[in-house]
Amino acid sequence: MASGAAALTLLSATGAHAEGRGDIRVTKTVVNGGNNVIIGTSARVNYPIAITIRDNSGVKGLSHVSVFNKTNGWGFSDWVDTRCETKSSTTSVCTASMTIAPAWLPDSVPGDVNSTAGVWQVNATVKAKDGDYWISDHIAEFKMKRASKLTTDAAPEPVAKGATLTVTGKLSRANWEDLKYHGYARQDVKLQFKKAGAASYSTVKTVKTGDTGQLSTKVTATAAGSWRWYFPGTTTTARVVSTGDAVALK
């Protein structure tokens, strides 16, 4: 059932296909509840793949599940368990439990393992009680992303009303090759402000990160409140919001 941690690298077939015997089919697949799978540098990540299967004789279960990058075919995830819930005489939802430990990732694929971040696909083989089976390729897509971090510091604190406030920070993301966080260069990050007593933040301006992921901009202090940076994310890197830095007026 499980591929085992020693067999992390998977290479996709050339071209999607679906074949088998009988009327068994996958009708719906949801990865991680519809959310991105985000991998950092140390914490193990577990995520479910819920596969809805239909056959006139009833569903027996899954005999294969694999996930990998849609473009280059490489991937890493261990299939560790499956639980099937019968919904009717013809339909079941079988949920495959997947796990990834970042320690597996360095040297897990040829070249830079960071190239596997982005859009991934799911393949599965499903079986029915009457012996029908179906090899289903590309039954779902999801994004496997590198975790990110973001800091904020506003100075001086407190600041005089109408004076210049400098807001700095740094955007970094997980590097799966050395399992460390490195600055993420040339990315658009939004500076946001929430006036003291207000319920939400609003965007003040957009600033591009420097060569080491650093951020710095100047604003006029017109009211007391909190400043933060917000990075909306990319196809390969998770969105992140920094902790707000509250600045009082003097």
- Considering DSSP H and I runs of 4 or more, what fraction of the residues is helical? under 10%
Radius of gyration: 23 Å
What's the β-strand tally? 18
CATH superfamily of the largest domain: Immunoglobulins
Biggest sheet descriptor: 5 strands, mixed
Tell me the name of the CATH class of the largest domain.
Mainly Beta
Query: What is the correct CATH architecture of the largest domain?
Result: Sandwich
Q: How many structural domains are formed by the residues?
A: 2
Task: List the total number of helices.
Answer: 0
Oligomer: single chain
The secondary structure category is mainly beta
Instruction: Say what the CATH topology of the largest domain is.
Output: Immunoglobulin-like
Mean pLDDT: 93
Question: What is the approximate shape?
Answer: elongated
* Series of secondary-structure elements, N-terminal to C-terminal: EEEEEEEEEEEEEEEEEE
Strand fraction equals over 45%
